[in-house]
């Protein structure tokens, strides 16, 4: 399977880095504070902006109260990096894009302290462009994050391939008009017929280019 694009947009958590243990530790502690079960917390949180999640679990809280919880969570997640590692193939793929001078950005629901800390600990190359929580007015599944990511690369979203592992993020990228590669075939994956490729690992992906029109060719191989 092959796709062509002028730029590449990557979700961070669950796509480039494994931060699952940190995320679930922090949010489950939050759940304990407010009396929500671990199961209910974990079934909701992934791929969604923290403020949206807080408002979901605290529908009657004031914005001031929400922000207190938000800053508490941000501190917890930015200081706890135990178990954060690069997912297989992520460092090699990003390094290859840099070798080819291919435009790419990280598009994450995380805040700057959390996202930058995890990238560094995981040993990922530093992107020239970030879209973090601070830059968006509407988070995933709204298309704004991936529209901003494409804009940062001076491209249209339909000229980009987006990599995502969570249903909310897949919705966001599809709604932006981007081509989409779903990583790890997430449970509840939306709009399967609209997703271009599903991979189990970024190790399956190779990139060549650019051609005379500025397009890079992405190929996907099967891993036995």
Automatic annotation (TrEMBL):
MF term (GO), any: sugar-phosphatase activity
Keyword terms, alphabetized: Hydrolase, Metal-binding
Enzyme Commission number: 3.-.-.-
InterPro entries xref list: HAD-like_sf (IPR036412), HAD-like_SPP (IPR051806), HAD-SF_hydro_IA (IPR006439), HAD_2 (IPR041492), HAD_sf (IPR023214), PGP-like_dom2 (IPR023198)
UniProt enzyme class: hydrolase
Keyword Cytoplasm: no
Listed PANTHER family: FRUCTOSE-1-PHOSPHATE PHOSPHATASE, GLYCEROL-1-PHOSPHATE PHOSPHOHYDROLASE 1-RELATED
Official protein name in the record: Putative phosphatase
